């Protein structure tokens, strides 16, 4: 343990929890100074803060009761500094149409229901939405660590809730999407256009395959865009990765879009980032508030996990369950990428406003980039 890391031991007797815990935990948290938040910031090698925590978890890094996770990187000064990204006043919508992809790519998820309700003198409408079918912001109740997908092994961010809390009659508001709706999410976004880089090399790729993107490729994409991935990112940034998903999906004939959800399990693959310690290290050191992409999961699917530090882990597990870092998926990055290439500039101001649903799991992000 690095001498700069000041640890406060909060609780040791986890047996007092009236809930099943996969391992006895020793809850420790970082002491930090609100006006100097990175003063004793743990490096990737110093994660987790206690060996009883799951793989590279950032539990306790923002305090043992924290519910905001990586959104804590967004400070007032982060938003204020990002105003310099607005130079032309062009606002670009990053959301897909809420009904897209249609049909949903996961066949157990129902399509959007949109009903018009005519009344005397005015019209209402009603939407019924599975928040995982279109552009979406995964909240912290969505994805815990688990060792074999078994609910008894679930471990949510900061160990604040269990599966039973979520599905109990009373439910729980802890780690709900209202936190990410009420926080006020804005700041600086950075686009890495992996698909554009591949096209620049005349390299072909299939977004419906299990091809993975490595961190060294992300460095090469940054270099191709004229950026240094080590020094370009600033704390609080929102990294958006274009994999070419929207472009290839839109180019499919309707009958192929219709059949996509029905590929057999082993073939139900989607291109995305690799699940590896190298990728986690690459991201952790950038102090990002969020990651996002145009594909279904940021990481490649199926995300059954890869061995990271001895356990099978997906990026979803470590990002959401471990770092409290949400993932924004199915973004529409086509116009943003075109604009960035036109301007030769890959950072922008962004805002996200999630639905203020108390206890919710995910939300359409209503994401906007402004250059
Ligand atoms: C917090 O950090 C600020 C700025 O570095 C410093 O002036 C202040 O003394 C620190 N407070 C504590 C309690 O350490
Ligand atoms: C920072 O922003 C928050 C939320 O808008 C506000 O409550 C707080 O007073 C602000 N802090 C400063 C120093 O302006
Ligand atoms: C998953 O792991 C837990 C804890 O080791 C064990 O109790 C459970 O039986 C396992 N479930 C499956 C389906 O393998
Ligand atoms: C890619 O293909 C185009 C058209 O055939 C060609 O002009 C260009 O030189 C190729 N670029 C590379 C990097 O191979
Ligand atoms: C990708 O799919 C191929 C063919 O199904 C398989 O042989 C390979 O192991 C898979 N690779 C990964 C990284 O899952
Ligand atoms: C990128 O920036 C880092 C940190 O400033 C520096 O050490 C490195 O040499 C730079 N890389 C390139 C290719 O310029």
TrEMBL record:
The cross-references to InterPro entries, in alphabetical order and at most eight, read:
KFase/CYL (IPR007325), KFase_sf (IPR037175)
- Regions crossing the membrane: none
Alphabetically, the GO molecular function entries are:
arylformamidase activity
Question: Signal sequence span per UniProt?
Answer: 1-18
Q: Which UniProt keywords apply?
A: Signal
What processes in GO biological process is this protein linked to?
A: L-tryptophan catabolic process to kynurenine
Q: Note the superkingdom of the native organism.
A: Eukaryota
Concerning its family, UniProt says: Belongs to the Cyclase 1 superfamily.
**Designated name of the protein:** Cyclase
What is the source species? Favolaschia claudopus
Q: What is the lineage of its organism?
A: Eukaryota, Fungi, Dikarya, Basidiomycota, Agaricomycotina
